[in-house]
Design brief:
Tachylectin-2, Chain A; 24 strands; 305 residues; mainly beta
Length: 305
């Protein structure tokens, strides 16, 4: 057994499995996530505190389209199978993108489902997540990286029902600078340019029918987690933004899940420093009006104007 505080992981994603009564913790598990990737592992726990693992769930074959930057895996159950959406650095052109893997079971092995990343070939993209709209249509929501566009974007593109390819071109949902809480920064690779980060989008449907989106950026060079919302309940928006981040303690890339007892939790990694990053599980409250309270941190109102 390993304790939560002893797990080095970035971009944590929890799959609560009702069938087994266990929580499956996926994430960026390579010790050196900035270099050559070895794959993805999973940890399994009945209580979010004591974990078994790590167990390998994906190891790439030699002909796989990436060998670096294996980041931010999310696992979603869809039409009887388990699909992993993850970021990979392409071998052919050095751009990052989100690809899809598939398995018949949560423990893998996961195998390539898409023949290449589904994000645009020449875009630097990352942190794709699956969202199923009210009509049952699948969407890929992802970030168009600041390294390419300066002002990081959150984008969406509709997927084919079999999740093998996209339908049409991506649409820009919003840019990081449109929210009040992120701050710009300078980078030596891009002298004189103001940059804004978008990381880790995750979309939930609120009790009042609106959509809430978690996403991460930086406040004065400190990693932070904020929330935007679509009052129309559609992924196309328009999207509005809370004025303050809900987590500002050098952590982010979060997602929300429900425990077996029916409580809601936010998980993210903190601090944002390798090799010290650990998964955090924060209690939250969501009321019928779409209002969220992060216990012990701060309060966020999805319907705040």
């Amino acid at each position: 057994m390993v304790k939560t505080q002893d797990i080095q992981i970035r971009d944590p994603f929890i799959f609560p499995d009702q069938k087994s009564g266990n929580y499956y913790l996926f994430g960026s598990t390579d010790k050196n996530i900035w270099g050559k990737g070895t794959g993805f592992d999973v940890y399994v726990s009945p209580d979010l505190d004591n974990w078994e693992g790590p167990y390998p769930v994906f190891r790439p074959e030699e002909d796989f389209y990436s060998e670096e930057n294996f980041w931010a895996p999310e696992v979603h159950e869809y039409k009887g199978k388990y699909y992993m959406f993850a970021t990979f650095l392409r071998k052919d052109n050095g751009c990052r993108g989100t690809g899809v893997l598939v398995s018949n079971q949560l423990m893998g092995p996961f195998k390539p489902h898409s023949t290449s990343p589904l994000t645009p070939e020449n875009w630097y993209s990352l942190d794709g997540t699956l969202f199923i709209d009210k009509n049952g249509k699948p969407w890929l929501v992802f970030c168009h990286e600041w390294v390419q566009v300066s002002d990081g974007q959150i984008c969406a593109v509709q997927l084919q029902d079999n999740l093998v390819d996209v339908i049409g071109d991506p649409i820009i949902l919003f840019r990081a600078s449109e929210a009040r809480w992120p701050t710009s920064f300078q980078h030596k690779r891009f002298p004189g340019r103001n940059n804004y980060v978008t990381d880790g989008p995750f979309v939930i449907t609120l009790p009042n029918g609106e959509l809430g989106m978690l996403w991460a950026s930086f406040i004065n060079n400190v990693y932070a987690q904020g929330i935007s919302r679509s009052r129309t309940g559609t992924i196309q928006g328009p999207w509005e933004h809370d004025s303050e981040a809900i987590y500002q303690n050098n952590g982010g890339h979060g997602m929300i899940f429900q425990t077996f007892e029916g409580d809601f939790k936010l998980t993210l990694h903190a601090p944002n420093d390798t090799p010290n990053e650990r998964p955090l599980f924060l209690d939250i409250e969501i009321n019928d009006n779409g209002r969220i309270k992060v216990m012990g941190e701060s309060e966020c109102k999805f319907n705040k104007r």
